[in-house]
Amino acid sequence: MLQIKDVRVSFGGLIAVKDMNMNVKKGTIHSLIGPNGAGKTTLFNAITRVIQPDKGDVIFKSESLINLTPEKIIYKGISRTFQNLQLFQGMNVYDNIYSGFVHNYKGNLFEIFSKKKRDFDIQTKNKILEVTELLQIKNRLNSYPSQLPYGVLKRVEIARAMVSDPELLLFDEPAAGLNHNETSEIRDIIKMLKSNGKTILLVEHDMNLVMKVSDEITVMSFGEKIAEGVPEEIANNEEVIKVYLGESENA
Ligand SMILES: Nc1ncnc2c1ncn2[C@@H]1O[C@H](COP(=O)(O)OP(=O)(O)OP(=O)(O)O)[C@@H](O)[C@H]1O
Ligand SMILES: [Mg+2]
């Protein structure tokens, strides 16, 4: 479904992603793991065109995304969450989630009071109610981010990513900063999304979560792929173990 082909991203002299190749299959949970600074978020940014890769291609359902804007990528069926929550503090939960949908309105400014726009708003409202029901945050729609626990805010971000009805979801550390219970809620959500037919590319440091939910795992270190396989293969891969041990020794 998603193919990453020879993607390279550099920042000045630093090559953050070096000729990365990866293939995410439809209907799977594919995890992308690796130590801090490995280039995982940078790869997400390249897929969603937040940054322009130096070279390479990103193909989604046989179509190149490389010349599209971030909004166009949402229309194509890809949404994401961010490593650092990017919610608007001055907006309630409903409006924050709505902001993930607004790109879907393809009409123009003159239609703002028209029937087309009203129909769009009704559809949007229904979608927001559906998604927040699924994520069990429907009772929080009028709250502001500052009034909510972190675990709920993470789910609000997932809800915002889901309102555009994406086929592929990119989650950047959805369990970071969460306690044990909140992490199991996230695990259940990820599994539920898969059973609803979504494809998920997951960046996550919580190995317990990664090993439990993933169909396939790709490991990056210093911008390069060092291993790929099913969870058991990755858990027993010597190079992967070395990279993670090195990280804990440095810490
Ligand atoms: N906008 C930027 N400008 C300069 N360097 C950057 C920028 N973004 C990332 N980098 C560098 O690129 C490398 C890869 O960073 P990236 O954030 O992709 O890593 P990561 O795998 O997501 O790490 P983490 O697990 O800590 O989130 C790092 O060395 C980082 O310092
Ligand atoms: Mg990151």
Notes on the structure:
By secondary structure, this protein is of the alpha/beta class. It folds into two domains: 163 residues, P-loop containing nucleotide triphosphate hydrolases (Rossmann fold), CATH 3.40.50.300; 79 residues, no CATH class. The protein has nine helices and ten strands. The protein has a six-stranded mixed β-sheet, sandwiched between helices. A hairpin with a 2-residue loop joins strand 4 and strand 5. The longest helix is centred in the middle third of the chain and has 20 residues. Bound molecules: adenosine-5'-triphosphate and magnesium ion (MG).
Descriptive terms for the model:
four-stranded antiparallel β-sheet, 251 residues, 9 helices, binds adenosine-5'-triphosphate, alpha/beta, single chain, 38% helix, six-stranded mixed β-sheet, binds magnesium ion, Rossmann fold
